Here is the input.
Amino acid sequence: MSESDVRSLKLGETVYIFGPVITGRDEMHIRALEYAREGKEVPPDLEGAALFHCGPIMRDNGNGGWSVVAAGPTTSARMNKLEPEMIRRFCIRAVIGKGGMSKETAQAMKETGCVYLAATGGAAVSLAEGLGICKGAEWEDLGMPEAMWRFETDRFGPLIVAIDSQGNSLYEKVSSSLVRVF
Amino acid sequence: MKRLPEPPEDVVVNLLRLANTRIPDDIGWALEAAAGWETGEIARIQLGAVLENIKKAEHLGVPMCQDTGIPVFYVRGKFDSSIVSAIAAGVEKATRIIPLRPNTVDPITRENYGSNLGPGMPVIHFVPGDVPYTEITVLPKGAGSENMTRLAMLNPADGVEGIKKFVQGAVLDAGGRPCPPSVVGVGIGGTSDRCAAMAKEALLIPLDCDNPDPVLGKMEEELFSALNSSGLGPMGLGGSSTVLGVRIKKEACHTASLPVAVNIGCWATRRASARIWDDGVEYSQGAVF
Here is the structure.
């Protein structure tokens, strides 16, 4: 995914990903930033990644590989404190998750050229199909949900462009016009 | 329909498989109804993806959501202390064979136990009862919705208006994080701990039955219509289906207190129950607690 690909995406648009996607949640973010700050090597997949906030259910397929059983998005807001630095350090091009992210994260997306793509929370079986082939994992010691899983996706989605590369957020639009009856 | 007797450990595996792979009828119907009345394009895409996912999970016999949660158990009727180790063995086995995601970790070191067990796990609530069977109910609770739990010790003077305002705030402030359209469980009264427990128990009440208390029933309807006119919508991306239902329970409380707790269930509010009789086991997903 190039910067110009990402810059061309419009808020509210539906997209599908064909190509590499990595997973990462709280512990993966913490370790990636810790290693990068200390000058230690990090997996090259991080550079320019499409980063899926997801802790999948994986099944050992018995011949040294893994297959994905269920893989929906996790709540992205938990990564709010870590994501701006992740985006700036590794030029993350797309963050895929649910529930949206902070203004600070949207600002980092605007600066470097990154979008937030909303996956349907809980649609774990359909999304697992789109993730396709598992290319292995990094940092398996973090445990199944927290490890960095690598996938070669084939029509992964539907995903909604919920924060565009100008930092505009669909969540902001919705929350600023919420009707409170009581 | 009654199935032949099975060891309690296997009943627990069956319960976890049923709860995780098949949506309860009432929740499925509510989701289809929501898809029927939604008009926004993005909201319709979300509900379409949810309904398609439910079909695939049931067809393939795999968990509908990767967050198979913390299984919360309710044991009612006849039981002795051996039920604890039977439930634990069932959870461990289900984690391996269904499979479920190993979710339990040490809260400080964050090390994963790998089995969904660990100190204090599985969570089991016991309700003694004079019935000729043992009823085991499971509510697998994912963290996206559980993390949005709120408890308020309101002033008695805040009254019904204060309760409605607090519930509305808890749901709307949670935004898209608990995977709406959600089921809203509310506990009113009790002590602080009982109140939180009631809010979760309320998620076990099917959406297609009336609250036996007309005052609570009216509050459920008012909150349902207020939340669905809020505009939050599926996944917090906007729309007219924010909640599938609101269920409220109440118990007596201290004269100086008005505890209120909100426990949100995601669209995948999963549950399954088994009644273990001497001559067989009956399974259902319409648990009324």
In short: The CA atoms of residues 3 and 135 of chain A lie 24 Å apart. Helices of chain A lie at 3-7, 26-37, 83-90, 103-112, 124-131, 170-176.
